[in-house]
Each structure stands twice: as structure tokens, then as C-alpha cells.
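Work package 3, deliverable 3.1, input record:
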Amino acid sequence: MALIQLDNVSKIYEMGGEEIRALDGLDLAVERGEYVAIMGASGSGKSTLMNVVGCLDRPSLGSYHLNETAVEGLNDDELAEIRNREIGFVFQTFNLLARTTALHNVELPLVYSGANRRERRERAMEALRRVGLEDRVSHDPSELSGGQRQRVAVARALVNRPSILLADEPTGNLDSSTSEEIMALFDELHSGGNTVILVTHEPDIAAHAAREVTLRDGKVLEDRPTREVA
Amino acid sequence: MVFSENFRIAFRALWANKMRSLLTTLGIIIGVAAVIAVVSIVQGLQFQITSQLQGVGATFIAVNPRLDNRGGGIFVGKQVKLTWEDGQALQNQVPGIAMITPLILGGNQVKYRDRQHSTTVFGVNNDWPEVANHTVERGRFLSRIDLEQRRKVAVIGAKIIEELRLGEDPMGTEIYIGNIPVTVVGVMEERGQSLGFDNDDLVFIPVDTSLMLFGRRAADKTLLRLQAESPKVVEQVKEGITQVLRTRHKLEEDEPDDFQVILQDEFLDTVSSILGSVTAVVGAVVGVALLVGGIGIMNIMLVSVTERTREIGIRKSVGARRQDILIQFLIEAISLSLVGGGIGLALGYGIGVIVAGVLPGDWPPAHVPLWAVAVSFGFSTLVGVFFGIYPAGKAAALDPIDALRYE
Ligand SMILES: Nc1ncnc2c1ncn2[C@@H]1O[C@H](COP(=O)(O)OP(=O)(O)OP(=O)(O)O)[C@@H](O)[C@H]1O
Ligand SMILES: [Mg+2]
């Protein structure tokens, strides 16, 4: 079984008696160490998929196995634990705590994994160094540029050394040169052995990945490699 | 997740909304301040009364005529009497009495030349200083001979010297009590004021001399003050007094005592029970204040949870569990409540000190016992937990995705 294995997954929302199928019987398997770009029109279900894969949300139907564990059978606290240890999530809107320093934002996953203060500090510093923000550790998000904020978010995503990195339009709010900086980080993380899945609308960004999955109406429309496999 | 981290988060959140936090805790502040202010004053009072009563010693006994007819008309047609003859009988018949003095009290004018002053006159015998543990500072107290010969002599308190301007050496000066001329033979040691009574604003005269002032009938309402030989015999002495007086007053078996024998610890009990009910009433008021305060905290915590929905979503997305969020908001509510408790404590103590200072005379200094501090903080914590649990539970139950999407 693949690291991430979705079988016939649906996510159904009820809106005033009407059924919206954000995901509609979707199948997807991602192996350890893959670099996947998810594409598709607005409303095709990309974010919904990422949230399910990231254990932030549960599928309405179908089964999701993460690392051979059936996620449907886990309770909220077990999901929280997976989010904490196995998955790093980067959002389009950064989702950093306001009025909280970059360092403390990056420390956050470690707070919930029970690391002591010194360890938290050291590892958060290291993660910030990795994203090139060692000179901005005591800045609040409001004192950082968009690209810098997203780099803080990436540092937070990788600080607990998860094996899977999920990014939902990580460059959606950034200009192209800043986007390239962020993508360089993901490339590096991927070559370091991480499984990386990112959602994007831009082919340039998708080109960083090895595999491109396109969604439409909550189903996989197309699934192909982005470049020739050597 | 470590506890200290939660306190840090809580204080940051409260500090970010200083004014709101302060206003929210007002109920708690007022509640705790009220407890501490009242307790500090009452405790100071109790402390002083206790130490004063202990001043006369555990062997001090008071015998008073019982003035109320609580027996349901039993005394109808019967005069309640307590006389110095009773007192002398006690001295002769009850073993264990070291000394005894009659006490006839009354308010009266004292005059010297054109000055006059209204004071309290004590008709007593020569044993008073030892019975009441109140000694003479200058001159002498009333002597046995003064008493036997019904001399018109007086021992006065310092305040009388001041009011009548008797000068450096008042000994031998003739002053008037009512229209009776008396010669000052001694000045009592200064004791200051207590409970609104000036212990230096008094005059002692021989008991028989006092009857000239108050009339012979006053002798039927003589108070008796005595000292037992040792604390061990106090109860026995009380028994003995009761028996002798019942016999002398010809009380039937089923008739209640027409006198009261009051021991030191009973005095204390009475004082304590009065102060206790004051405290209970205040406690009830405070309960209401804390309830109001608690509702305020609940309200603001609900607002805070709503405002920080995204924060909760972010925390959950990086791995915060239900209980992490629950504890975070619970600790925030408790911190809010404790800050209120702390401010209330300081404020209450301040009020206690100011009130104690403003009240006339030697009002005892405010005294905050440790238990009151503990109770204040304990209650604050309880209020925080009780009224914080609902908002915190609400925060903990949020769905991570819904929370992250919240605008
Ligand atoms: N909480 C919700 N309640 C109701 N419908 C929802 C909810 N979340 C998503 N949807 C619907 O599900 C569908 C998929 O949404 P999703 O956010 O996954 O799209 P997306 O592919 O990420 O789009 P975009 O590129 O604009 O981010 C949309 O039609 C959306 O309206
Ligand atoms: Mg989306």
C-alpha cells in the first residue's frame, strides 16, 4: 500500500438541502518520497483533498490510509498527533499567529509535541536558519513581507521533521521571484527525502514536481509525470 | 503541553486587552476587596478584643443581674436584685475566689472651677486594680479605709486631668462629681481607647460614695467582678456562685437564674459569634459579587473564543489536542479571575488600612489573616474554572477546518 492511499473518497457538504460533492469518489495513491503537484480549476476540490490528506478534515465516504493506518478509525486526538508529527502543512494565507514572533510561531508544533523550552528554541532557530530567516526571529508576522511570512510558515511546517509536506497554493499570494525562493525550499526538502504535495494554479510552479494530478469536479481528471523520467 | 506555557499564553492574551480584562474582573475585584476589607477590620477588632480580655486574665469572672425576663413572666412580682451583700456572701462561701469587687456604673458630670466634663463614674472597692488588672500610675488607689469611712476621694483617668485642666500634679485637688466634692488621690495608668470607649475617661470612687451619687436603689443592681485563684478552678467557682446566689435569691428548682455568671471564654464566644454573623452577611454579599464577576468572565471568554477562532484553528492544525485548547482557555479564565483576586486583595487591604486609620480612637490596625488570602484566591480560581469551562469547552470542540476558515 502506498504512503498515502485514497480509495473512492467523497466529501459531501449539505447546503440548504442541496448536496455538494467537493470530492466525488476520488482515488489517489502517493508513494513515499514523491513530489506531486495538484492542479485544477477553482472549486475542483483541491483544498478539500489537501485537508483530507492532511488529517484536518475527514472524508464523508471512502477510505484513507496514511502509512497503512485507516484514518477513519482514528479519534480527534490521534488525528492531532498525526498533524503534529507526520505532516507539515503550508497554507496560501500563511496562517501564522498574529502578534507572535516568528520564532514562537515556528516553535508551536513543538509546544504540542511536548519538547522542552531549550529544545524548542534550538530546533525553531534551526528551521528558521534553513529558510534563511535567522535575522528575523523576533519579528511579528505584521513586520514581515509576504515571502518572509511564507518562509516562517515553511519553517513551522518542517520544524517537527514530518515526512509529509503539504502546501495549498503556497505561492498564491507571492510574486514570481518570491515564489521561486519558496519553491527552492520545497525542492530542497524533497531532495532531502520528504514526500511533498502542493496545490497550484501555475504550470511554472507545478513544473517543480515530478507528477501532476489534475482534478475536476472532485475527481482525478489527469495524472501524469511532469517531465521525462530518466 | 506544559502548564507554564499556558500561563504565558494567557497573560499575553489578557495583556493584549488590558482595559477589557480589567473591566471584566471588576466583579471579582469588588467581591474580593469587600471580603478582605471586612475581614481585615473584623479580624483586627477581634484581635484587639481578645488581647484586651486576655489582659484581665483567664481567671476573670463577671456576675451581672439578668435584666431580661426570658423565663416568660417568671419574675413578675419578683425584683431581680444583685447586691454587694451577695458579693460578700460569695467571697465567704465560695472557695477559689481570690478577690471580688462590686461595680456600680454611671455617667456623670465632673467639675473643676468653671470647667466641666461628662465622664463615667465607677463605684468600686479597693480590689479593683487587681480584679481588672488596671493599675494606678501616680498616687494611690482607693484604700480599705477610704471604703470603710465612705471617704469622698477619687482616682481619675488621664483624660480627666486633660479635660478639667488639673495641671501637673492633680493630687489633693478637690473636684466635683455631680454635686459631691471629692479629693483626687491617684491617677490611673493610661490605656488608650478601645472600641470607641476611652479607657482613660473615667473616675473611680468608693462604692458607697457612688451610692450618694446614683441613689441607694442602684445598690440593687450591683455588678460583681472577681478573680478566681487559678484558671483551673474557674468552672468550679462558677458553679459555687450559681448555687450560693440561687439559695440567697430563694429561687425554686424550676426557676431560671436571675443573674449571669460570665467567664472569660464566654465573653470571647459572644464577641466571636457577633463578628461571625457580620462576616457571614458580608460573605453572602460577596457571593453575589463573585457570581456577577464570574458571569462577566464567562461573557468575555466567549467573546475571546470567537475572536480567536482562527488562532484555535492554527493551533489545532499544528497538533493541539482538545485538552490543550481546553486547558489554554481555562487557564486564561482562571488567570483573569486570579488577577481580579489579586487586585481585590490589595484594594481590600488598602480599604481596611484606611478605614482603620480614619475611625476615631485606637481602632485596631487592619489585619489580613492568611486564610482570607487563601480563600480569596481559592474562590477566584473556582469562579474562573466554573465560568471558564463552558467557553473553553466550546473552543476545544471547534473543528480545525471550520476554525481555520473563520473570517
Ligand atoms: N465548508 C464547505 N461547505 C460547503 N461547501 C464547501 C465547503 N468547503 C468547500 N466547499 C465546496 O467544495 C468545492 C471544492 O472546494 P475547494 O475549496 O476544495 O476548491 P479548490 O479546488 O481548492 O478551489 P480554489 O482553487 O478556488 O482554492 C467548492 O465547490 C466549494 O464551494
Ligand atoms: Mg483551494
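The longest strand of chain B covers residues 97-112.
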